[in-house]
Amino acid sequence: MNTKTNAMRILDKEKIQYNVITYDVQKGKVDGISVAQMIGRSPESVYKTLVAKSSAGNIYVFVIPVEAELDLKKAAKITGEKKIEMLPVKDLQKWTGYIRGGCSPIGMKKHYPTIIDSTALEHEHIIVSGGKIGVKMELSVKDLQQVTEAKLEDVTK
């Protein structure tokens, strides 16, 4: 695969090491647990990127394990917002430049406050979307945190 995504170009520019992992999207399963099985990795090391919007209109990015669920109350508390809700899928591309199933925490249209679930600290490397369906990237938690300027917090149920 030689088409670099925006996320990969950013990592290259920052000289950050990452591995590209591709999987067959023809199977139609793009949920994180199915993808983890397809790429032969434990679901604990595969993270999904969720985008949420506060009642004040601020956008936040959450990177959490594929098996986990975002705790909206914890998310609101950590971000100092009254209320946070998931961004409707129809608005995802408008705000991030990415589509559902291919939303990377790296290289969105704008830089949004990013929170990586603290479970990531249990792993040296985690796998996140490479910026399009069928493409994942594996990189160190430290590098992901650095490139996204993320905070590590407990944000899952």
UniProtKB/TrEMBL annotation:
Give the main EC class. Answer: lyase
Check the record and name the InterPro entries matching this protein. Prolyl-tRNA_editing_YbaK/EbsC (IPR004369), YbaK/aa-tRNA-synt-asso_dom_sf (IPR036754), YbaK/aa-tRNA-synth-assoc-dom (IPR007214)
Picking any one GO molecular function of the record gives: aminoacyl-tRNA deacylase activity
Keywords annotated in UniProt: Lyase, Protein biosynthesis
EC number(s) of the enzyme?
4.2.-.-
Question: Short name of one Pfam family for this protein?
Answer: tRNA_edit
Q: Could you tell me which residue ranges the YbaK/aminoacyl-tRNA synthetase-associated domain spans?
A: 35-146
Check the record and name the CDD domains matching this protein: YbaK_deacylase
- Give the record's GO biological process terms: translation
Name the residues that span the membrane.
Answer: none
Q: Does the keyword Lyase apply?
A: yes
Family of this protein:
Belongs to the prolyl-tRNA editing family. YbaK/EbsC subfamily.
Please state what the protein is called: Cys-tRNA(Pro)/Cys-tRNA(Cys) deacylase
The organism is Aeribacillus pallidus
